Amino acid sequence: MDEKEKIISAAGKVIRNTTALIIGTILNKICSLFFFILVAKYFGDIGFGKYSFAISFTALFMVLGDIGLSTFAIKEVAKNKNLAGKYLGDIAILKTILSFITLGIIFIAINLLNYPAETRNVVYIIGISVFFNSISMSVRWIFQAFQKMEYEALINLAQGMLLLGFGLLALYIGSGLMGLAFAHMFTNIVSFCLSFVITNKKFVKPILGIDWNFWKYLIKSAYPIGLMAIFSVVYLNVDTILLSLIKGDAHVGWYNAGYKLMGVLRMIFSLFVVALFPVMADSYKFSKESLEKILRKAMQYSLLLVLPIGIAGVILSDRIIMLIWGEAFSQAVLSLQILIWAGILCLFAMMGGYCLIAIDKQKISTYITAAAAITNIILNLLLIPRFSHIGASISITVTEFMVAFVAFFYVCKNLKIRFFFKEDFKILTASLLTGGFIWYLRDYNLYLSIVLFACLYIIILIRSKVVTGEDLRLLKQIFSYQKPI
């Protein structure tokens, strides 16, 4: 198989897997977003702030239940599928033990803080919910390793629908914030059961047993990735926790109105990187040149997508906030305008970080995320007391920029490649031109403005030859290509 066929096949895997993930996860995020809108509408900015704090607080600790095991397993099993049963069994047992320990830490930590009983109780239930999600993920990594993302998409869809359904039931019977917390817990219990059934029926049965030497190998090999995940979760959640401690629940609510919308973008972008990761690891076995070409195309198509989203999001942010959250969250407009760029920068930060893992440079990625966590904590402590949720938005955006820049600096250094070409400037020009158009139409119908914006952007890309006939033919080959690499 020649180099072009390898690239087409690899790109086909990425796009098909990303498409499956996007469909399931978009539906999941739509359901989840409706769920959080219900929380905001029924309980206001203060109640929404309490609930958002509980989510961030538990997420801050539950990453300890993985320590990088799933990501390491994806990389190893993607290279050798015969290892799947062994990795599956040992990681499932190890992660269950770690998740139990972490759940105890959550219960102790929230009691050490002087929060009211309602907040503590919500944290307890959300903690149990995240525990079940953690042990569910101890087998779900197998879908990525085998590049069968349709199963991940199925579980994502089920989670979103169940959360919304249980949430509506909780509001109907008037069970308050605790009822919504239980909705999270029941959703993740069902997801946990579904994950194990699919893994056993469609993939391999886990080889259960306690192999101390293999556990030591797993922990030793995965801990750089685990540290990276821990630092990443810190810098993604510490802003909400510090806002809660310094400014109170209402400010947390305003910040998370923008942050939840940015989180939808972050999740969609992460799906692309998750699908790209095993392909990067697999391509690196052939040559650096193969990985370089795949990564370069991924960068170009990412810019095509995210730049217009950022520009349109800034211009239309006030109407988006009013439409989704309502007048009570008007303070979130400026926050969203800043956070949307954090979501975009996150795509490139993740892409660079996962590329470093794929080329066995986990420690560099760990150092980057450690620096990011420290930077974000310092910026939040400096900016939140003076600028509240706006300061938190600035902090996370600056941090994401730092991570993306440094990660790609080391990717370029290790692979001896460069990424910036004249096509990137054409994409920027096309985005700015269509941004001017959307600015002119900002007071007209929101949906019509977005459709016209997208159409004009595509026309400019084609006319300026950023998207060429060769690209279209490549995409056609990618979607129809069935040969394995």
Describe the structure.
The chain has one domain (3-480). Helices cover 86% and strands 0% of the residues. It contains 14 helices and no strands. The longest helix has 60 residues, at 3-62. Mean pLDDT is 78; it is low at 477-485.
- Alpha plus pi helix count: 14
Q: Quick one: biggest sheet?
A: none
* Oligomeric grouping of the chains: single chain
Structural class: mainly alpha
Q: How many domains comprise the coordinates?
A: 1
Strand segment count: 0
Q: What sequence of helices (H) and strands (E) makes up the elements? A: HHHHHHHHHHHHHH
Residue-averaged pLDDT = 78
Query: Can you tell me the overall shape?
Result: globular
Please compute the radius of gyration using only Cα atoms.
Answer: 22 Å
C-alpha end-to-end distance: 8 Å
The residue ranges in which pLDDT falls below 50 over 5 or more consecutive positions are 477-485
- Proportion of residues in helical segments: over 70%
Relative strand content: under 5%
